[in-house]
TrEMBL record:
Ca(2+) binds at D74, A75. The record marks W103 as: Essential for stabilizing binding to COTL1. The keyword Protease does not apply. GO terms for molecular function: arachidonate 12(S)-lipoxygenase activity; arachidonate 15-lipoxygenase activity; iron ion binding; linoleate 13S-lipoxygenase activity. PANTHER family: LIPOXYGENASE. Keywords: Calcium, Cytoplasm, Dioxygenase, Iron, Lipid metabolism, Metal-binding, Oxidoreductase. Residues 2-118 form the PLAT domain. It comes from Monodelphis domestica. It is found in: Cytoplasm. The keyword Metal-binding applies. The lineage of its organism: Eukaryota, Metazoa, Chordata, Craniata, Vertebrata. Binds 1 Fe cation per subunit. This is Arachidonate 12-lipoxygenase, 12S type. Residues 121-665 form the Lipoxygenase domain. InterPro entries: LipOase (IPR000907), LipOase_C (IPR013819), LipOase_C_sf (IPR036226), LipOase_CS (IPR020834), LipOase_mml (IPR001885), PLAT/LH2_dom (IPR001024), PLAT/LH2_dom_sf (IPR036392).
Length: 665
């Protein structure tokens, strides 16, 4: 018995309030009590109530709530419920948090377990038994609501939703986000720019013509895009820093034709010095090019070799646009000493290929689609009171919806890829299948990936420096939460929900990816922390690194054209007419600019890494871990700002103040 002060906190979203009345119960270890509280939750409001109870409830375990439907049935977004208990034997009132953070729909009774703190989670078996029944019922409902779907064979599984309207309400964009996204997509640039310009020009006459449609601060790209050091810089710190690797031998595909012995000598010398690098786009070899408005497009599968100069500049040494093919002449090698237009066209072909693998492999597959697999498995396998659910779920905000929109508008039949890229029309799906088939766990774990690519210890590799710092900061945060809730490796091994989650990702979501290094179980806290760090890193920092550069580097279309309308050159005789006939038409160029603007713009009302809106954990220990995470991010912010001050080209995509907590665009 005692006095109970109850606070009901309603979300501040449009439509978060409810016209229905709500009934509450308090459920303790010994008994439960129905509170005679009928109230109408108001948007963004905290409503307080006070009741004196005669029953001895014992330690509180749940709050139960039920929306009473009379005439109107709406959805109420409940943030959380807080209860302050003051009883005779207590020196001070005890504050207890019951997180919700979801839409309450229908008139069923919803159980909100007490927030997980170290003591709750480690609670003796008997009480866990009470929770056990709740958790099983909750997961049964979640598995009904969140189902896997095979959108296309050979790709990671997705959530089962034809359009965003089929998604569970808790995964939908809130009203402000939806209005912003749809507004930017439909009425902003697309219609205005496309309609006006596509009537003026059907194709370009000179490379400078592209300046008619460029805007923003891409001036530097317009001025420098033809320079070799600017070309090389992009493989270190541009829109796609995932292709470069240090050469350990001369690539077998690089057949040196007679008469090019000097080149062979230079390559071998750089190899010996350990400063030979490569970017190999063989994944594109044999992909069927698109046909856009009846006009055939063309694809290449280039290889470019670089040398790293002592001053940190990465300079291209040779470009091979197609791999050798038996029965065909040895493919020509393009050199910086070739006629300027010839060398420029070879670099443009490399950047067209880079845009395809960047957007499909690095951006869509290795961040968006991977985060969706983690999100669906989390909703299907981890109950709401599980500490790993509470750690991860803020990092999946809006991801199912943005990915579902990608499947209906971007990579769908007739979607953006079909309209503007030379991999569209089905080739883009084959690239996604090939990329999925070679997607390894190590390639998602950045310290492993960067070591495997030989990219450690390069002063001019700013992306590398910043991702390694972020990986360590996220790892420390994850380790803090895991060690609070798992006292040793055996706790991890014995956690059935957690082990099921791991198997669901590897065996189901990724279609049996254990042969690519993904785990089917966690044997230790260390293994668990590594995997969880990868999940959070993928959903925040890595997405930021491969998304934010789109506008900077792709708005000047010649720097990375989205399609190519003529075959790759096979001789050194290249004219301006050939280059212009190869470049995208006005429509494709405008759509490239509109899309890359849409997909890399700063999201209004974004939630930053480390600053989740939800408060799932309770207790001072969890709060301390989160505070330290925020301090670490703040230190890194200041480090990067200071470093950038001394740079001709600042690298800002991994400033913590620009990293969203989840993939929302
Ligand atoms: C040259 C244009 C390239 C566009 C970017 C290509 C791939 C981006 C990779 C991942 C993006 C993930 C999700 C985007 C989701 C929705 C955006 C799709 C279409 C919006 C415009 C529209 O609806 O028509
Ligand atoms: Fe994205």
């Amino acid at each position: 018995m005692g006095r109970y002060r109850v606070r009901v906190d309603t979300g501040n979203f449009v439509f978060a309030a409810s016209a229905n009345q709500v009934q509450l119960w308090l459920v303790g270890h010994h008994s439960e009590a129905k509170l005679g509280l009928w109230f109408h939750p108001a948007r963004g409001q905290m409503e307080d109530f006070e009741v004196d109870l005669k029953e001895d409830l014992g330690p509180l375990l749940f709050v139960k709530l039920q929306k009473i439907h009379l005439l109107l049935k709406d959805a109420w977004f409940c943030n959380h419920i807080t209860v302050w208990v003051s009883e005779k034997n207590m020196e001070e009132e005890q504050e207890i948090l019951f997180p919700c953070y979801r839409w309450v729909q229908g008139d069923g009774i919803i159980c909100l377990p007490v927030a997980t703190g170290k003591e709750t989670w480690m609670m003796e078996k008997e009480v866990q038994g009470l929770f056990q029944k709740h958790r099983e019922e909750e997961l049964e409902e979640r598995r009904r609501l969140y189902r896997w779907n095979t959108w296309r064979k050979g790709l990671p599984l997705t959530v089962d939703a034809m359009t965003e309207k089929d998604l569970p309400l808790d995964m939908r964009f809130h009203e402000d986000k939806k209005i912003d996204f749809v507004g930017a997509e439909v009425t902003g640039l697309m219609e205005v720019v496309l309609k006006r310009l596509s009537t003026l020009l059907s194709s370009w006459n000179s490379l400078d013509d592209f300046a008619q449609i460029v805007w923003g601060h891409q001036k530097r790209v317009c001025e420098s895009w033809k320079d070799d050091d600017f070309f090389g810089y992009q493989f270190l710190n541009g829109a796609n820093p995932t292709m470069l690797r240090r050469s350990t031998s001369l690539p077998t595909r690089l057949v040196i034709p007679p008469g090019a012995e000097e080149l062979q000598t230079q390559l071998e010398r750089k190899l010996q010095e350990g400063c030979l690098f490569e970017a190999d786009f063989s994944l594109l070899d044999g992909i069927q090019p698109n046909v856009i408005q009846g006009e055939r497009q063309y694809l290449a599968a280039p290889l470019v070799m670089f040398k790293m100069e002592p001053d940190g500049k990465l300079l291209p040494m040779v470009i091979q646009l197609q791999p050798p093919c038996s029965g065909s002449p040895v493919p020509p090698l393009f050199l910086p000493s070739d006629p300027s237009l010839t060398w420029l066209l070879a670099k443009i072909w490399v950047k067209n290929s880079d845009l395809q693998l960047h957007e499909l492999q690095a951006h869509l597959l290795k961040t968006h689609l991977m985060a969706e697999v983690f999100a669906v498995a989390t909703m299907r396998c981890l109950s709401g009171m599980h500490p790993i659910f509470k750690l991860l779920v803020p990092h999946f905000r809006y991801t199912m919806e943005i990915n579902t929109r990608a499947r209906t508008s971007l990579i769908s039949e007739g979607g953006i890829f079909d309209q503007v890229t030379n991999t569209g029309g089905g080739g883009h799906l084959d690239i996604l299948r090939r990329a999925t088939a070679c997607l390894t766990y190590r390639s998602l774990c950045l310290p492993n990936d960067l070591a495997d690519r030989g990219l450690l210890g390069i002063p001019s590799a700013l992306y590398v420096h910043d991702v390694l710092r972020l990986w360590d900061i996220i790892f420390r945060y994850v380790q803090g939460i895991v060690h609070l809730h798992y006292s040793g490796d055996k706790d991890v091994q014995d956690d059935s929900e957690l082990q099921a989650w791991c198997r669901e990702i590897t065996e189901i979501g990724l279609g049996g990816a254990q042969d690519r290094g993904f785990p089917v179980s966690f044997k230790s806290r260390a293994e668990l922390c590594h995997f969880l760090t990868m999940c959070i890193f993928t959903s925040s920092a890595q997405h930021s690194a491969v998304s934010q550069g789109q506008q900077d580097w792709y708005t000047w279309v010649p720097n990375a054209p989205d399609t190519m309308r003529q075959p790759p050159p096979t001789t050194k005789d290249v004219t301006l007419e050939m280059v212009m006939a190869t470049m995208p038409k006005v429509y494709q160029s405008c759509l490239q600019i509109a899309m890359t603007w849409l997909l890399s713009r700063v999201q209004p009302n974004r939630v930053l890494l480390g600053y989740p809106k939800e408060e799932y954990f309770s207790g001072p220990e969890s709060k301390a871990v989160l505070s330290r995470f925020q301090e670490d991010l703040d230190i890194l912010e200041r480090e990067i700002v200071a470093r950038n001050e001394g740079l001709d080209l600042p690298y800002e995509y991994l400033l913590p103040s620009r990293i969203e907590n989840s993939i929302t665009i």
